[in-house]
Amino acid sequence: MKRPASTRTLVAAAALAMACGIAPVAMSQTASNAPAAFATTDATDPYLWLEEIESPRVDAWVAEKNAHSLGTLQADPVYDGLHQQALEILQSRDRIPYGSIKRGGFVENFWQDADHVRGIWRRTTLQSYGTDNPQWETILDIDALSASEGANWVYKGATCLPPEDRYCLISLSDGGKDATTVREFDKQTRQFVEGGFNLPESKSGVTWIDRDTLLISYAYDPSTVTNSGYARSVRILKRGQTLDQAREVYAGDVTDMAVNGYNLRDADGVLKATLIQRAVDFYSSDKYLLKADGSVEALPLPRKGGINALVAGKLVISTDEDWTAPSGQTFKTGDIFAYDFEAWMADKSVQAELILSPGEREAVEGITATRNRLVVALYENVRGSIYVYDPANWSRNRLDLPENVTVGLGSTSSENDQMFVNVSGYLTPSSLYFADAATGTATVAKSLPEKFDTTGLIVEQNEAVSKDGTRVPYFVVRRENAPMDGSNPTLLYGYGGFQSSLLPGYSGTTGKLWLERGGVYVIANTRGGGEFGPRWHQAALQQNRQRAHEDFQAVAEDLIRRGITSQPHLGIMGGSQGGLFMGAMLTQRPDLINAAVIQVPLFDMLRFHKLLAGDSWKGEYGDPDIPEQRAWIAEYSPYQRLSADAPYPQVFIHTSTKDDRVHPGHARKAAARLEELGHDVLFYENTDGGHAAGANLRETARRVALEYTYLTRRLMRDTSGENQ
Question: pLDDT confidence of 283, banded at 50, 70, 90?
Answer without folding.
Answer: confident
